[in-house]
Each structure stands twice: as C-alpha cells, then as structure tokens.
Amino acid sequence: MIFVTELKCSVRSCSFQKDDCCCRGNITVEGAHANRNSETSCGSFEEKKNCGCANSTGKPPKMSDVTCEAVNCKFNEGRKCHAKDIQVAGTNACTCMETECASFCCS
Predict the structure, then answer these.
(1) Less CB within 10 Å around the terminal CB: N or C of the chain?
(2) Helices (H), the chain
C-alpha cells in the first residue's frame, strides 16, 4: 500500500528541490537506529551540479510516497511515513548525511 504525505524540502542544494518542495515524488528517509532528527537523512538526496540545472520539471507534486527506515519514529508504519506532512532540512547539504527529516519524532 502506498501512503502519500505532503513533502516539504528546504535542501536548496538538492537537484529535486523546487519551491520548498521535493519534485522526486518518492524518497527514502534513512536512519534505522535514529533517536533524533540529526540521526536521520534523506537517502534520495542528489546534489545539484554547478550549472544550476535541476532534475525537476514542472510543478512539484503536492503529495509524495515516503519510505522510512527510521523504525523509532512514531510516524513509521511498515516502513512508510504516515505523517500528514514532513519537512526535510539541510539547507547547504553536499551529501545525504547533511540532510535530516525535521519531522522525526521518537516513539
């Protein structure tokens, strides 16, 4: 079953980020043993190249499918995020490890 959630993203250095949203449509939140936001990351992060080009085209989707490996998060049900909306943070990230799920909430 696919569960969709509103995915907001402030990671301006990611090629999928546009207008504070993620244009990828589906992402994976990593951090299987996370107990706080800083121990999670967006495994789908791809750094923008210097040309300023982006992988995104058109308008970002309002809802996204989010696979979640952070089993300690209260929104994780069967490796899917069931939060109404989530925020991925890491404004100047160069790698996925510099991103985080700002909506992570330890259960």
Answers:
(1) N
(2) none
CA distances to 77, 90, 99 from 47, in Å = 29, 12, 11
Domain containing 41 equals: 4-101
Task: State mean pLDDT over 83-90.
Answer: 94
Let me know if residue 95 belongs to a domain. yes
**How many independent structural domains does the chain possess?**
1
Q: Give the pair of three-digit tokens for residue 93.
A: 């990230």
Position 5 scores a pLDDT of 74
**Nearest by Cα to 91 from 8, 11, 20:** 11
33-57 pLDDT tens trace: 999 999 999 999 999 986 555 555 5
Find all residues with CB under 8 Å of 78, minimum gap 6, and list them. Answer: none
| Inside any domain, residue 82 | yes
pLDDT of 24 strictly over 80: yes
Q: Which two tokens stand for residue 6?
A: 């509103």
Structure tokens at 57: 């085209």
Q: How many residues does the chain have?
A: 107
